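Posting for a labmate who doesn't have an account.
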Amino acid sequence: MKTVSVSMALMFTLLFITSFADNSSNIDIRGKKLSVFVEMEKNSFSLINFEKNTWSKTLGKFLFPDLGNDVEQTRDGGYIIAGMTILPLSLEVGGWLIKLNENGIKEWDRVFRNIDNLIGVEVLSDGYVVAGNGKKGDIEIIKMDEMGNVVWNKSFGGKYLDIIKSCGCIKRTENGCIILVTSWSFSNNKGADLWLIKIDENGNEEWNRTYGKAKEADIGYQVIESNDEGYIIVGQSFNLSAPEYGLIMKVDENGNEKWSIRTGYSIFSVESAGNSSYIATGSKWIKENIDYALLLLKFNEKGEIKWIKMFGSKDSDDAGYFIIHADGGSYIICGNSDYRGDNNIWLLKIDENGNEKWSKIYGKRGWDMGRCIKQTYDGGYIIVGETTQFPWMFFPYRLNLWIIKTDENGEVSLLKSFLRNQSET
């Protein structure tokens, strides 16, 4: 009787803290020692499957939003996360850097008061470099050691507002980093330009280039190294004649533009596909359904589009936000699917020709968003974003940072299975 009471109390507590939906597997954990470990510390919830090392974790505070923008696996097998938090006493927004171990348990965190939001993080041989949006309208690039202590801090900015939009806007290179900035002008018929900055390992600028047109706002989302030592940039452009269209640009190793193309759809992320080609993802408006579909397109080194494919369903707004290499020439897209107001994380695996291999949805009622995904050392995936916490209908802006570790097939331990088996004890 006592065991049943304890189990029921645990079930109620878990249901109150969070819910996790993934109907793709049916795990029986009875009789498996330490197969599932539930950790509840202040302002966080974890569910861990030690057999496959998959888990789901939320981090944050009651009532105040906390966001995750980027994640990288560290050299010790843990994870480093860049995001945003609000300090509860001062209500001050700050950039948030969190170090987790391999099971998602927090080891340490740092809050940067000179930054509104940490957008990107890269792992170095001796620490980390992070990029964020500073409180004075500039971008901040910070080098830290492996314990999060600041080594140097560099600011880059112009007269007006300069921001970094997504985790793909900072990329570690052989001898430094390349940073993609959206630079707002507000004068001389200018809206926003793309600003590419190359820095060395000490944060010193090597060169910078600006790209843009009058009466046009260009937003940068990702920069990657091209197959010939240059760079590929993707983003969006806005003007009066075409309210929104995608932008793909190729520049050489010194940032000089070689070509650019505009498309009739949004592009948020790009990945090298070998054989001098690339695969990008984004979204496209389907006029007849009045919905957005997740978009995939393949283009070559000259900017020639080879194919376009779309994924989605009627009555849902779908988009792909980040794409990475997977095993055997496959690719993983982290996106979202908004069905009648409930936004969920969508993980899609495709082959080299854009054909679907499998698809997973993570989330519940309310808002769940995946902003970045990386492959882990064990062949699985790590996703970071945010989720609304229970009861979302009373506190719709109560967002917590959400990080999910999956196996190679996108599977995660089921909270539903854990609760079901505990209730049968």
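Reply:
Got it, the structure tokens are right above this. The chain has two helices and 31 strands.
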